[in-house]
């Protein structure tokens, strides 16, 4: 398999895995701890390979997530587009932060994502979520260093630029 195909396959496989992990059901007490996987994977690719990730891709992944998850069409598309926009805007700074600062930046981006989701759902007529609903960004930020190092290691082992 040539290098370009392997590169594209790895990229698409990570996005598909993120969408599938989003669908994995958890027991009700653990549901608030479930991280938003598509956001984490798109953040990784935004920082490591900005030429591949754009607002159109974020919107497309968000629409796929909306269709798979059965939520309001465009909800995740809006959230992921805003997240990728901010990540690409500050990419040159975020890439060179130490891991602890990068983790705090990811936490801020994931909290911003939750705020956007709250606004969208309130406008749709739903009630405000419980306080435990705000735990997910903290879990995602805690997983960020491990996810980043895992993807980086696999990318180096597969010799993907």
Automatic annotation (TrEMBL):
<keyword id="KW-1003">Cell membrane</keyword>
<dbReference type="GO" id="GO:0005886">
    <property type="term" value="C:plasma membrane"/>
</dbReference>
<feature type="transmembrane region" description="Helical">
    <location>
        <begin position="132"/>
        <end position="151"/>
    </location>
</feature>
<keyword id="KW-0472">Membrane</keyword>
<keyword id="KW-0812">Transmembrane</keyword>
<keyword id="KW-1133">Transmembrane helix</keyword>
<feature type="transmembrane region" description="Helical">
    <location>
        <begin position="53"/>
        <end position="73"/>
    </location>
</feature>
<protein>
    <recommendedName>
        <fullName>Rod shape-determining protein MreD</fullName>
    </recommendedName>
</protein>
<dbReference type="GO" id="GO:0008360">
    <property type="term" value="P:regulation of cell shape"/>
</dbReference>
<comment type="similarity">
    <text>Belongs to the MreD family.</text>
</comment>
<dbReference type="InterPro" id="IPR026034">
    <property type="entry name" value="MreD_proteobac"/>
</dbReference>
<dbReference type="InterPro" id="IPR007227">
    <property type="entry name" value="Cell_shape_determining_MreD"/>
</dbReference>
<keyword id="KW-0997">Cell inner membrane</keyword>
<feature type="transmembrane region" description="Helical">
    <location>
        <begin position="94"/>
        <end position="112"/>
    </location>
</feature>
<comment type="function">
    <text>Involved in formation of the rod shape of the cell. May also contribute to regulation of formation of penicillin-binding proteins.</text>
</comment>
<keyword id="KW-0133">Cell shape</keyword>
<dbReference type="Pfam" id="PF04093">
    <property type="entry name" value="MreD"/>
</dbReference>
